[in-house]
Prior knowledge:
By secondary structure, the protein is α/β, with parallel strands linked by helices. Helix content is 47%, strand content 20%. It is built from 16 helices and 15 strands. The strands form 2 sheets. It has an 8-stranded mixed barrel with strand order 6-7-9-10-11-12-13-14, surrounded by 4 helices. The chain has a 5-stranded mixed sheet with strand order 2-3-1-4-5, with helices on both faces. Strand 12, helix 14 and strand 13 form a beta-alpha-beta unit. The longest helix has 22 residues, at 181-202.
Amino acid sequence: MLAFMGGFGTLKYKVLELSNRYIDPVTGGSNEFLFQQEFQKRTAQKGEFFAFLYINIKKFSMINSEYGWAAGDHILKSVYTAFKEKLLSGESIARVNTDTYYLLLRIKDEEALKARIYELDDAVYFLEHLKIDRKLFLSIGAYILKDASEIYADAVDRANFCRTHSADASDRNSHFEVYNHTIHDKREYHKKLLEMAQPALEKKHFKMFLQPKYELEHETLAGAEALVRWQDPEEGMMPVYEFVPLFEKNGFMRQIDYFIFESALELIEKWMDEGIEPLKISVNLSKSHFSANNFFEERVLPIFERHRVPRQYIEFEISESIMLDNSGSLIKFVRSLREQGFECSMDDFGSGYSSLNMLKSLPVSTIKLDQKLFSEEEKERGKIVSRGIIQIARQLDMKVVAEGVETREYVDFLKEQKCDMIQGYYFGRPMPVDEFCKRM
């Protein structure tokens, strides 16, 4: 009898262990292991059409950091429940990691799929009792399965690709994209760019261009922003809007940043050797740098120390979105830069996620007003906002650079508001170094 009870206990433990293999500990629902099995089983059914959805909660890491893990786990479970309540018979869901969910939906056509996606988004947007004072927004990629031969890994890959490469991916609100032939062609093009990138860097096909900055009081040339351009001998000038976001995602932009930084230092040294008073050049630090704590000391500073350039001629630009995602660590980083004698500016301020409260904590020396503030669509409202930011910045002893200024009307307006500098097509587009030197 005792032996039988022992065997029963072992069997019970094994059943429990087996069930835990299928359960996500945060939501209490299915995990990816179970979802993949259901994917194989359901998609093998003849006469059924399915779509695979890859869903992320936008800015979840920032929510987790601000409100804590307990609130974050509560959100993850609430979102899972909201999705599950919208599922029909024969459909599946799983939370696979952090804020990522996979869904398998039965559909008739693409229009029906879009209607289902809107339902899912509404279900999350109108969630209550989340213990946070903001709404949740989703990033959604969908791939329509053609037949039972579809491979699970391909479905995941394609849905995620169209999600991350959507034109609306950087928008604050929810967005979705359905994988199609256009996206497939774009993906093949991106593969080609990635294969070309390293050889292009080695062969010096990447070039530093400079966009002039003009001080506004006397409208004289006062500095420049260093930007990258890719001049391929066969393809011609490669589109910046294609390769920069791509390289930011895969981390290659770090190599580009180091190249541009060194190019800027070499140019300043050249001016000094020729007896020309250098102008300050600002260089960008892309988001991927901040995945490593000591990147500045280990990679950037050694490049700087190879040259004889005084720190006053270099400024580092960090985008507003990077600062919002890493506010705590970035405050320390910017303070460290200033202690070492470097200046730092916040790029794209006013691009959609701005927090005026952030200005009191970040020790940047300059803020750059995003060009969206100077669009013709909402001209008067843009002027009101930019006027207010300039006034606040002046009281905080910060300089202000207006980006993307294209008309005399805005030049006169910004001069009246005591804006410090302008960078935009009105005074000059990004140009080769030789052309910029002629302006000097």
